[in-house]
Design goal:
With about 400 residues, the chain is of the alpha/beta class. It folds into two domains: about 5-20 and about 290-395, Aspartate Aminotransferase, domain 1 (Alpha-Beta Complex), CATH 3.90.1150; about 35-275, Type I PLP-dependent aspartate aminotransferase-like (Major domain) (Aspartate Aminotransferase, domain 2, 3-Layer(aba) Sandwich), CATH 3.40.640.10. The chain has helices at about 5, 20-25, 30-45, 45-50, 50-70, 85-90, 110-125, 140-150, 170-180, 200-205, 255-260, 270, 275-285, 295-315, 340-355, 380-395; strands at about 15, 75-80, 100-105, 125-130, 155-160, 185-190, 210, 225-230, 330, 355-360, 360-365, 370-375. Pfam families: Aminotran_5. It is an enzyme of class 5 (isomerase). Keywords: Isomerase, Pyridoxal phosphate. This is Isopenicillin N-epimerase.
Length: about 400
C-alpha cells in the first residue's frame, strides 16, 4: 500500500490488511466526524440524546441517507447494531409453530444460524439446511440446492446476499421470487452488500433485509440497518424493549418507535455514516444515480485480479465464476485439505507474524480449507502477489 492509498485510513503501515470483509476499516475523516458528534453529545447530553429533543431528526437524516442508497422507503428502515442483531430481531419475533421448517444454507453466517436454531427450538420448529456446493460453477446451482429443500412445511427462509465464508454473491432476486411463489417469507442477510453491490430493495422486495454499516460502507463499528416490508412491521420487535413500546414521541410509527430508542446509547456511529458514504463516493466518482458505482467496479476488478494472481501461482481452477464475486474471494488450498485445526492455526500465525498479512484462513467443510481475500481501495495488486508467494511457501 503506497502513501497516497494509506493516508485516508488508519491501517498499520507494516501490515497487508486483506480482511476488510470482517469488520471493515473506517477512514480518518469518518472517525473525526464521529468524535465531533461525541463531543456535541457530552457538551449538552440531554438536548443531544433525549428523543423528544433533537436526537430523532438526526436519526431521520441518516435513515433517509440509507434509504436512498438501498432504494427503499425510509418508513421501512430502522437501525440495529449489526446484521446479526437484525436477524435476531426478526427471527425471535416470528410466529413460529411446532412443525414449521426454517430453511438456511451451509454458507450462512454461524451467528445468524445460531439465532435461527434457538428460535426454532423454542417453538418446536425445525431448521433445514440447503447444501450449496463449493467450488461452484453457476448461480443455478444455488437455486437448485435451495429448491430441493423446500417442503410444504417451510414457512421462512434466511439467505445471504454475499456469503461470509465463501464470498459468493447469491442470486437473491431469483431466491426471493422462489420463496414467495411457495408462500415462504424470506430474510436476506446483506451484511456485506451495502458498499459492495448495487442495492434496490424496491425491486428485490424481500420481506426483511438487514446489513452492516461498518463493513463496505466503512462506517464506525456498531451500526447497521434493518428493512422490514410494511406488511410485516407490526410483528417485528427489537432485541431490547424500551420506552417506545408504549410512549408517544419516539417515532412516526410503532415500528420505528420501538427501534429508535434501545435505552441510553451512543448514536455517533450512526450519525457519522453519511460522512463515510460521501467519502467513498469521492474515491471513484461515477455518473448516474448510483454514486458508488465507480468504487464497486474498482473493488470488484481488484478482487478478481487478486484472486487470479493467487490461482495462477497455485495452479488452481477458479472455485466460483467471476460473475458471482463482489469484492470478496475465497480460495480453497488443496495442500491444506488434511490439515488439523492446529496446523491451520499455524498457517494463520505464520501469515500474520512472518509475512505480515491479515486475512482469514479456515476450514469450510471436510474437503476445503480456504483463505479469503478482500479488496478495498487501500489494497493493491502487489499485496496479492506477495500473498501468493507466501501461500506457496506454506503449502
Amino acid at each position: 500500500m503506497n502513501d497516497t492509498q494509506r493516508e485516508p485510513w488508519l491501517i498499520r503501515s507494516d501490515l497487508d490488511f486483506l480482511n476488510h470483509g470482517s469488520f471493515g476499516a473506517t477512514p480518518r475523516c469518518v472517525i473525526e466526524n464521529q468524535r465531533h458528534w461525541q463531543n456535541l453529545l457530552e457538551e449538552d447530553p440531554i438536548e443531544f440524546l433525549a428523543p423528544e429533543r433533537s436526537l430523532l431528526p438526526k436519526l431521520d437524516f441518516v435513515r433517509e441517507t440509507v434509504a436512498k442508497e438501498i432504494n427503499a422507503s425510509s418508513r421501512d428502515v430502522v437501525f440495529v447494531r449489526n446484521a446479526t442483531e437484525g436477524v435476531n430481531a426478526v427471527v425471535r419475533s416470528l410466529p413460529l409453530r411446532a412443525g414449521d421448517e426454517i430453511l438456511v444454507t451451509n454458507h450462512g453466517y454461524n451467528a445468524c444460524i445460531n439465532a435461527v436454531s434457538q428460535a426454532a427450538n423454542i417453538a418446536g420448529a425445525a431448521v433445514t439446511t440447503a447444501n450449496i456446493p463449493f467450488p461452484i460453477q453457476s448461480p443455478d446451482e444455488v437455486v437448485r440446492a435451495i429448491e430441493r429443500r423446500i417442503s410444504p412445511k417451510t414457512t421462512w427462509m434466511l439467505i445471504d446476499h454475499v456469503t461470509s465464508p465463501t464470498g459468493i454473491v447469491l442470486p437473491v432476486a431469483q431466491l426471493i421470487e422462489l420463496a414467495h411463489s411457495n408462500n415462504i417469507r424470506v430474510m436476506v442477510d446483506g451484511a456485506h452488500a451495502p458498499g459492495m453491490l448495487p442495492l434496490n430493495l424496491n425491486e428485490l422486495k424481500p420481506d426483511y433485509y438487514t446489513a452492516n454499516h461498518h463493513k463496505w460502507w466503512c462506517g464506525p463499528k456498531v451500526s447497521g440497518f434493518l428493512y422490514v416490508d410494511e406488511e410485516s412491521q407490526d410483528e417485528v420487535l427489537p432485541s431490547i424493549i424500551s420506552h417506545g413500546a408504549n410512549m408517544e414521541g419516539y417515532g412516526p410509527s410503532k415500528f420505528q418507535s420501538q427501534f429508535n430508542w434501545p435505552g441510553t446509547f451512543d448514536p455517533s456511529p450512526l450519525l457519522a455514516l453519511p460522512t463515510a458514504i460521501d467519502f467513498l463516493a469521492g474515491l471513484h466518482p461515477a455518473d448516474g444515480p448510483n454514486r458508488l458505482a465507480g468504487l464497486l467496479r474498482h473493488n470488484h476488478e481488484l478482487a478478481v485480479e487478486g484472486r487470479r494472481v493467487i490461482l495462477n501461482e497455485l495452479k488452481l481452477a477458479e472455485p466460483a465464476p467471476e460473475s458471482m464475486l463482489g469484492s470478496l474471494a475465497t480460495i480453497p488450498v488443496p495442500a491444506w485439505t488434511n490439515h488439523t485445526s492446529v496446523q491451520i492455526q499455524a498457517v494463520r500465525t505464520a501469515l500474520r507474524t512472518e509475512y505480515r498479512f491479515e486475512l482469514p484462513v479456515f476450514r469450510f467443510d471436510a474437503t476445503n480449507v480456504c483463505l479469503r481475500i478482500s479488496a478495498q481501495t487501500y489494497n493493491s495488486l502487489d499485496q496479492y502477489e506477495r500473498l501468493a508467494d507466501a501461500v506457496t511457501k506454506l503449502s
